[in-house]
Specification:
By secondary structure, the protein is α/β, with parallel strands linked by helices. The chain has 9 helices and 8 strands. Helix 2 runs parallel beside helix 3, helix 6 crosses helix 9 and helix 7 crosses helix 8.
Length: about 280
């Protein structure tokens, strides 16, 4: 098995750099990656401490440093001791520069904007966790997205994924015997999305859930006729209220979230960004 020290240096939270590294590393097998993560690198003193570690554990250095002085210092050090180093976003920014006919600029306040985006995501995650499974319906008007669906249609994991993308998301289970609060049908700001799936898949998922909880696998909860009725009632509710519907039967959580984000962008006029990220920042 190959072994590699991977150093990730960023002058912000480093989330973009981490995602790039994860995607690249996933393409290789039988590799032990020893990851060294260095976020918020904004001073010579901080970079000096990191370079000491680079000297002790040489490997591959990936970086996103906007400060020209820090970037030059890091590149000079890596060249001097023969460490491969790469700024993954350079190719993209160079291509944009050529197409747009503009030089890249280090905009004042850029780090502050990135920090705001980070805290906006944290706020979205906190909101979403506090409004899971129908809880806190009094505050749904503050949400960006409200997911509605029968039990086991992946509402919670999809909500959490959307929250990590910066969308305040609430979700509500649809149970025929317990109608949702009337406020669901009066929401102005949030986009309500119905999640549905095939009855066959729903029965299988629910039965596995009961087995994992050591409960009887044959109840009304997994009765095919009842489940079909649940799905039909939910679909009727979606249609009656004009809510967009996403079928999760053959979709992963990521694919479901991508479909919802696309619907949301249409809903708000195609801004293409999560709330609080209208400038398209990473």
């Amino acid at each position: 098995m190959s072994r590699l020290h991977l150093h990730l240096l960023s002058d912000s939270t480093g989330e973009t750099l981490e995602n790039i590294a994860k995607a690249a590393v996933a393409q290789f097998e039988n590799v032990e990656i020893i990851r060294h993560f260095w976020p918020m690198v904004r001073s010579d003193q901080h970079l000096d401490r990191i370079m000491e570690e680079l000297g002790r554990n040489p490997g591959l250095v990936l970086f996103t440093l906007a400060n020209p002085g820090l970037r030059k210092k890091l590149e000079k050090f890596c060249r001097a001791i023969g460490i491969p180093h790469l700024a993954p976003l350079d190719g993209v920014t160079d291509a944009l520069s050529n197409i747009l006919g503009q030089e890249t600029t280090n905009r004042p306040g850029r780090k502050h904007i990135l920090d705001e985006a980070y805290f906006a995501r944290i706020d979205a995650i906190q909101f979403t966790i506090a409004h899971d499974d129908g809880v806190g319906w009094e505050n749904w008007e503050e949400a960006d997205i409200v997911l509605a669906g029968v039990s086991r249609t992946s509402k919670t994991p999809t909500s959490i994924y959307l929250a990590n993308r910066g969308y305040k998301t609430a979700n509500i289970p649809l149970v025929p015997e317990s109608p949702p609060p009337p406020s669901l049908f009066r929401l102005k700001h949030p986009m309500v999305v119905g999640l549905t799936t095939s009855a066959d898949r729903l029965v299988a998922v629910r039965r596995n859930r009961l087995l994992s909880l050591n409960q009887a696998p044959e109840t009304a909860y997994v009765d095919m006729e009842r489940v079909q009725q649940e799905v039909a009632i939910a679909r009727r509710m979606f249609a009656n209220n004009g809510w967009p519907v996403v079928d999760v039967t053959r979709r992963s959580i990521e694919e479901t979230a991508a479909a919802i984000i696309s619907l949301y962008q249409e809903h708000v006029g195609g801004s293409g960004s999560a709330p609080g990220q209208e400038d398209g920042r990473l």
